[in-house]
Amino acid sequence: MPPLRGTGADREAEGPEYAGDYRLQACLGAGGMGVVHLAASASGLRLAVKVVHARYAEDPEFRARFRQEVAAARRVSGAFTAPVVDADPDAVRPWMATLYVPGPTLADQVKRNGPLAPAELRRLTAGLAEALRDIHRAGVVHRDLKPSNVLLTDTGPKVIDFGISRPVDSDLHTETGKLIGSPPFMAPEQFQRPREVGPAADVFALGSVLVHAATGHGPFDSDSPYIVAYQVVHDEPDLTGVPAELAPLVARCLAKDPAERPSPAQIMAALLPPSYAAEAFIPAQRRRPSLPDGEDGAYGETGSRGGRGEPGPSPAWDADTPVRATAPVPPRRARPLRGGRLRPRLTIAVAAAVALAGAGIYAAMSPPARGGTEPPARPGEVATAFAGWETTLQKHGPTAAPACAHGEGALYCAARGVGLARLDPVTGKVLWSLDAPVKAESPLAPFVLTGGARGTGGLVGAAAPTGPLRAYTAERGAPAWSTSSKLPESFRPAGSAVVLTDGQGGVRAVDGQSGKELWRHGLSGFDVPRPGPYDSVSGLLAVSETSADGTHTRVGEFRARTGEVVRQRNLRGALEPLGRTSDGALVLGSLYQASLYDALVLLDPAGGSVRRLPLPHRIDVRGVAVHGSVAHVLDADGHLTAFDTAAPKGRVLWELETGAGNVSTPVVGPGDRLYFSVQDGRLLAVDTVRGALVGQTRPRLLNGRLDYAPLVPPPLVAGDRVFGTAPDGSVFAVDARDPASW
């Protein structure tokens, strides 16, 4: 049989022989969506490999769900979850490999041996609370915690099956009319407000799981899922049989109002000091699965009956198979694709810095350097560290990450309720601030105006996404000028000018210092142009306009101060300008559909030559940073691809799976480093030479909660400092020279 990466269709009845580079040895369980196999790596490492049925591999929606499962599992791999060793969601038959250790599920244990004793129940409560704490710290909501998704091992409970989990910073939401989860263990808000499900829903599920473990049944029981749903939303839970010492805590977990439920940390605190022995639950010994070719090893089956070694039923796919492990995974390193072959694989062990599930407050979020795996500071970097700072601009109400701009030695930021503020970039002290416009629903977008001096530091501008545009003196924040228009306008700073477009073909520019209109007319050759990136070297602003049928795009460049179109031409496909290479070539993204890119297109401004460079696979792009000849492409799942545009047909230099969802546009800074922000407030740093994650900050959430936001402001790099913003309303600065210390 060919490996999964091979071409051609596998015969489903026979099954594949390999998943990627891993030989599949024995079937551990099968369900409606796929099969879980026992496998071995080249070094002999035992793995549990989940392989999707061929009939689902052709379903784009299922592939998206499976890719989300892989991303979520990578983010939370740690002491209480199953570490992902390798995965390929884009294979002919998508698969994911985790380390393998035996252990019954909580559902099997209760079914075969009855409810847990009080001491075992208390240990289970503490272990699951700690697991949820680390899962939520990683920015993930499980959404389907239930007894069949809890493994009992000699090192404590492990939470598995992230098939319907979502990062709290993800822009993927439950579709209208679809109920996702297991009703007896779902929170009321999952039935009533599925788009607002947060970490508190996992705490409600924990309460239901504990009742099941203590009594053999859930707090809301019925043969009808509709009745169960009604009971979850309206009725009080049945806690009969729950030990008296735990019943009040379980009742709090099952509160109808998410705000009244305890956090995992509060649950852990309520259990201290422990009143039970320290030893962990040790499941009954079970028989090994039969292995081909006379192979053997101390590996348990997927189920047992009373510890007598009788084989249990085959586990279902949706309940996941209890074949997970928790041994640490080596730090992730990006590796070149073998033989230059471009393959859309997520095939490298998850980085220790992205595991996000260790002991202590965000301790596991420290990059590998803290474990001694990262190199020392680069030659020439100063030893004196920048201590950093954090300033909260907004403290109350619904928050969103502030938006900032840096220039003329000053930092300017805007937040909800704070129209504009100037901060000292060295200390973070607020030098002055202005109230936001009354109708402003999101932070204004600040930018520094150049080209002259008016007061100390010139001017700073700020505007809502569709105007009006206002300018203020940098010294005191006094009003300088503002624009007015009958139509809402979007703006694009371009050196000493600001270009405004109304989306209906109207284009004009104003002088950044005086606010006086420089010109107002249509751009020759364009009907409804869309401004792109500005090139400070040539003083040209890119512009594009895609045809209604998406078959071609007119691309040009014009002078911002005069509106003169310098060059333009028609190109095939739907394209959008992204940036420029060091030799001046304009880089455009080729849109397959929506935000999916299938290629990069390079337009030489001098000779007019065009090169189309296919990407290794279609990428849901969130941002592209061009540095030299390399385009760093960041997708919606936090997968970063370094693509060399200088190669005749393009070439992937490295790929890095960061596991971050809903990210900002990446920014390249000095020292061959790239930075981007995540919606949970983290700032990540990547070494662009080695393709390695070298640092990340802790999440910054307001009261541990995160509202969805469609855009995440990118960080700012200024000399030896990086400025980031977070959804708790804060602005912070860290030392760009030492990401390992973040």
Automatic annotation (TrEMBL):
Keywords: ATP-binding, Kinase, Nucleotide-binding, Transferase. One of its GO terms (molecular function) is ATP binding. CDD domains: STKc_PknB_like. It holds the Pfam family Pkinase. Residues 284-340 are annotated as: Disordered. InterPro entries: Kinase-like_dom_sf, PQQ_b-propeller_rpt, PQQ_rpt_dom, Prot_kinase_dom, Protein_kinase_ATP_BS, Quinoprotein_ADH-like_sf, Ser/Thr_kinase_AS, WD40/YVTN_repeat-like_dom_sf. Residues 22-282 form the Protein kinase domain. This is Putative serine or threonine protein kinase.
